[in-house]
Every structure is written in C-alpha cells, then in structure tokens.
Amino acid sequence: MDRKVAQRTPPDEAELSACVRAAQQGDETAFRTVYRDLQPRLLRYLRALVAEDAEDVASEAWLQIVRDLPSFRGEYDGFRGWATTIARNRALDHVRRRRRRPQAETTLDELTEVAGEHDTELSALGGLGTERALRMILRLPKDQAEAVLLRVVIGLDAKTAGQVLGKRAGAVRTAAYRGLKKLAAEIE
User: Fold this and answer.
1) Contact by Cβ (8 Å): 180, 187
2) Residue 104 in contact with residue 52, Cβ under 8 Å?
3) d(CA 34, CA 17)
4) Residue 116 has pLDDT above 80, yes or no
5) CB neighbours (10 Å) of residue 38?
6) Which residue in 171, 109, 166, 119 sits closest to 139, CA to CA?
7) pLDDT in tens, 16-71
8) Contact at 8 Å (CB) between 19 and 33?
9) More confident position, 187 or 69
10) What is the pTM of this model?
11) At what angle do helices 13-24 and 76-100 cross, to 10 degrees?
C-alpha cells in the first residue's frame, strides 16, 4: 500500500500573528509554532555575531522573550523584530563579557566555519552552502553584513531592521543593497 506523506505548509503571517496572541495567553502549541518559525533564522543571525556561542545566546534570548511576552503588542512581523532586538542585545552582552575574559586568538576563517553542514534553511540563500554563504556575508563591512542578515535571513522589513540596529530605515536599505550588490558581484 502506497502511503502519501502530507506535507505541512508553513504558517503564514496571519496564522503566526494569531499564534503570538495565543502564546501570550499561555498556549504552548502556539508558542511552539512561533519558536519553530523564528529559531532557525535567529540562530543563523546569531552565528554571524557570536559564532559557536549562538545556541547559548539564543537560549538566553528565548528566556527573556518568554518572560516579556505578555507585554508585547503587535503582529508577528513586529514580534520578529522585537525578538531579534532581544537576541541582538544578548549577543552584544555576550561579546562584551567575552572581551573581559582572556581568550585564545581566533581567526575570521575559524569563525566562519561554525555553521553546521546540515543547515538546510540557509540553502535558500541563492543555493549557496551554509558555510560559504556566511563566509561571504561576514566579509562584508559590519553594517552591510548585519543589514543583509536582518533583511534576508531574519526577514525583517527596513523599518524594523532599523529599529533593531538603531538606524533609519533608509540607512538599512542602503546598507543591505550595497551588501547584496557586493555578494552578487562575488557570485558572478
């Protein structure tokens, strides 16, 4: 007997917004849906900021997200930006803590190889492998790299990405455009 496996379609923005509202009321299934949608993107973003410590930083961020979730107001797109801001702040705190303690020197090449070989979501970045895509993005100037990560990997609009970075939406659009243009030239 031939069994067909039903493929689950990813939830759309309206469904995810409803899940955020339900999660605020304590619905664990709704929270799980939101987490499953956002966590892979947050991890890719955090890998670019804190390398192999991305999962630890993401855990800290999710603890704060859960704690502050009842106070969040808005739709899923706003939630994504809010959660990314929390994750970025935890990453910056982590970097500051790491600078205070002595460490062995790590080269940029070592940092760019932290992404797992089996991260299939990042294959959407133009068919590039995870490691190669992150290496290419990390070679961009910092403002361009972060703008590309927020706009492409996390999927934020320019206004929300600007709020995360503390910059104007136009500055984020320009940085992302320049970064993507450089990446396109490198791919060609």
Assistant:
1) no
2) no
3) 9
4) no
5) 22
6) 109
7) 999 999 999 999 999 999 999 999 999 999 998 998 999 999 999 999 999 999 99
8) yes
9) 69
10) 0.70
11) 70
Count the residues in the chain: 188
The residue type at 139: R
Q: What are phi and psi of 133, to 5 degrees?
A: -65, -45
Count of H-run helices and E-run strands, the chain = 9, 0
When pLDDT is cut at 50, 70 and 90, the band that residue 97 belongs to is confident
CA distance 75 to 63: 20
108-137 in b/e burial notation, b at 16+ Cβ within 10 A? eeebbebbeeebeebeebeebebbebbbbb
Alpha helices in the chain (DSSP H): 13-24, 28-50, 54-68, 76-100, 108-112, 130-138, 142-148, 158-165, 169-187
